[in-house]
Amino acid sequence: MFPIQSIRADFPILAQRIHNNPLVYFDNGATTQKPQCVIDAIVDSYTRTNSNIHRGIHSLSQCSTDLYEQARERVRKFINAPHGREIIFTKGVTESINLLAWSFGEKFIHEGDEIIVSTMEHHSNLVPWQMLCERKNAKLRFIPFFENGELDIECFKTLLNERTKLVSVTHISNTLGTVNPIKQIIDLAHAQGVPVCIDGAQSVQHTAIDVQALDCDFFAFSGHKIYAPTGIGVLWGKEQWLNDLPPYQGGGGMIKTVTLAHTDFNEIPFRFEAGTPDYVDAHALGVALEYVQSIGITGIEQHETELLNHATKRLQEIDAVRIIGTAAHKSGAISFVVNNAHPADIGMILDKKGIAIRTGTHCTEPVMQFYNIPATARVSFAMYNTLDEVDFFADTLRKVVRMF
Ligand code: PLP
Hints:
A hairpin with an 8-residue loop joins β13 (321-324) and β14 (333-338). By secondary structure, this protein is an alpha/beta fold. The longest helix has 20 residues, at 59-78. It has a 7-stranded mixed β-sheet with strand order 4-10-9-8-7-5-6, sandwiched between helices. α3 packs across α10 and α4 runs parallel beside α5 (127-136). It is globular, with a radius of gyration of 22 Å. The chain contains 14 helices and 17 strands. Pyridoxal-5'-phosphate is lined by residues 92-94, 122, 124-125, 170, 174, 199, 201-202, 222.
């Protein structure tokens, strides 16, 4: 039995009422709520251990440094990375991909080179590559997807060629919920000697990640989408790649020695962590990952699959609702549109009943352009959601639809 009641009790925000209704929080794709242990970790850090890391000899600084490095080790374990030094703390996926695009681009991308992304990417795995291609006069190429939201892998095979220098794709689409066949993509790219970056923003909280089994070259995720605070995230990269990449930002902590004329850079991962890192939130991220592990990602995945399947069935029963993204393998999120109603109106009315959903383009405007729609409504699930909440949402939506 999945311990849903004790899990819900761990998240204080869920006890709230919104417009005098119990909060139904279905906006987890945007950000997840935080368990008490994560909130306590932040409070405890500022109450007992706060001090800047890596540079102090005094006790607090050492304690703070230990917590930061312990968090790195927890991340390493969580994604089964071979070495802690391959874990770079960033602000989140956006910064992770900007770091990679700048740094990898600086060293390895030249005029006429090609980078492949898909047409379902979040803007943060699209715009940095566009900027790089513009800077270097390189070409961005796109894996298209079918009407059902599945990537066209046959087309991907034809895109790979001797000019391809990198592939960067999302594991799970934040808009369509599609689980992409990333292992196949990685293997196909590697067969041509091309490295692959995986955007794990929507996967790490829903399914087990083993970067060694995947054999990807880079993997990025954001803490706030896996029950940790905002402002902390990860870029993991294979050591041989990271050792070869130039630093992204200059400043304190990333140096070995500095003269007025020259700087020798520090080793990985510090070379990529210029300035005072967000050590408090890194520690809280480690606590969040331990929390997820204590519940078990397999149980979480099963529970969330049940939620997704049930919500899909209930939405399909409403004639005026069209689900956007009907891939065979989905996780996390369901997008939909309603005949004769703008998603924003749907979202506003549901909010009056305490149901939080997201409406808009979900930072995937090309996906909206593909379906020729201005926006979608999106429900996205986390481990603390229940089947009763799905039913309440579906019953309420049915009534709302009748109003239009
Ligand atoms: N990639 C995907 C698939 C996402 O869903 C998101 C956020 O929604 C991001 C990247 C960007 O994450 P962040 O805003 O935490 O940097």
